[in-house]
Amino acid sequence: xSTEIEVKEVEIAVVGAGLVGSLLAMLLARKGFRxxxxxxxxxxxxxxxxAGRSINLNISCRGLKGLERAGVLxxxxxxxxxxxxxxxxxxxxxxxxxxxxxxxxxxxxSVSRAGLNKILVARAEETGRVNxxxxxxxxxxxxxxxxxxxxxxxxxxxxxxxxxxxxxxxxGGSAIRKSMMxxxxxxxSTAPLEYxxxxxxxxxxxxxSFLIDKEALHIWPRGEFMQIALPxxxxxxxxxxxxxxxxxxxxxxxxxxxxxxEFFNTEFGDSVPLMPDLVETFFENxxxxxxxxxCHPWQVGGKALLMGDAAHAIVPFFGQGMNCGFEDVSVFDDxxxxxxxxxYGVDELVKSKESKIELIWYKFFERFVQERKANxxxxxxxxxxxxxxxxDKVADPRFLLAKKVEKLLEKRFPGKYxxxxxxxxxxxxxxxxxxxxxxxxxxxxxxxxxNLDDAEKVDFARAEKLIxxxxxxxxxxxxxxxxxxxxx
Length: 488
Ligand SMILES: Cc1cc2nc3c(=O)[nH]c(=O)nc-3n(C[C@H](O)[C@H](O)[C@H](O)COP(=O)(O)OP(=O)(O)OC[C@H]3O[C@@H](n4cnc5c(N)ncnc54)[C@H](O)[C@@H]3O)c2cc1C
Fold this sequence. Notes:
Bound molecules: flavin-adenine dinucleotide
Oligomer: single chain
Number of domains: 3
CATH superfamily of the largest domain: FAD/NAD(P)-binding domain
Largest sheet: 8 strands, mixed
Radius of gyration: 24 Å
Shape: globular
Helix content: 25-40%
Distance between the termini: 60 Å
């Protein structure tokens, strides 16, 4: 009896039906492509499974743009819980509020990861052009033949799929990326953070009420570690503790009920009465790890491509990982539109027998990578910077003064002075440009803070001169509008 495994042939295989893979499938279907999506996990619409990392996420401008491109923004909008600013909780329970944007029109949104993922999968499936194959774990790729081997986790049998294009959206631990790493000239670095995270919960109050301010992202900054909480629709909050794995205050020291309660009562005392199941949840929930992945190239000869976390996993402290992945989808759409303008629409890309069609795909993927790589590196750096900011600086009086001055400048000079945070969160200008502008903004604020102890006394005339000289020329080069109006 033959032991050979039948090889199925498909046009486009998307590997990973997480947030980016399912959004990409939706976009491709809208463009007229037929897509086969292979996902390791069972169908989360039918089986109750953990959504994976982080129960809810902060979605902002770039993420919403990706949803709009794929035609699913209207489906997702009713699921969003707006967060207008950060609420800092001191050790003794004192609260300090910092709005996120220059006014109430700029805010972030909390969204359920599982809820969003289910909408994306359902809408993609409804197009009739996307088939999802759940319980299919990619284990290996033959890049010569463009064949992916999947293990069907429900039967434990291997399934081979020959795809003309393979798109790996299988997250930070990507099997598709690992297969590329075996090819010559491939570079990949993985930098794990020495911190872990643990998810906890503040349940809803009576009648589904919110027990703390619902319109804020709550932060308990404590120098070497912190806790944050994002609101959910049902009145609950998902709380995330970020803590070193090792050291005096670390996960390795929280081994029993006594040590957990002592730690939380000392560090985050005001949150303890809000979490009646704190100890049980602490020991039930896994401790997650975080890392930055940088790799190059993201494609193999126009036949395989990485997107989302598979290409550029970042630490979560700017709330941008998914937003960046959704921006990949918008840029992929731009590249497809450019090809269509040159006469290569879906029919030509799929059916053409022209020999140069492979070169067209190669150039298309290359253009996408060129647009994204420097920007993905920039947000990876900024996410690490923001880790330091959220962890250490939000409790530092000079930092708080600088933030106040920054807010005043944003209000006084809208569209002219735009902070790095706003450029990343409330605009679509390239991340690299936001990073460069952030360095310039820091210099301007540093100069204005000299001998200043009250933000209201900032010298606006000097500020305007500095902005005109240093920031305006940089922002004038932006390919996207910088004026930030409307959140999102
Ligand atoms: C604690 C935390 C908080 C975060 N908060 C935010 C936030 O507020 N805002 C934000 O924008 N981002 C946030 N992120 C980042 C965000 O979660 C990721 O950037 C986003 O999930 C990336 O989407 P993705 O589809 O590329 O990968 P994933 O969401 O990881 O999806 C990958 C999919 O591929 C599947 N898969 C994996 N391996 C295989 C395989 N071998 N074969 C087949 N399928 C496979 C997985 O099951 C999964 O469904 C956070 C991350 C963490 C860890």
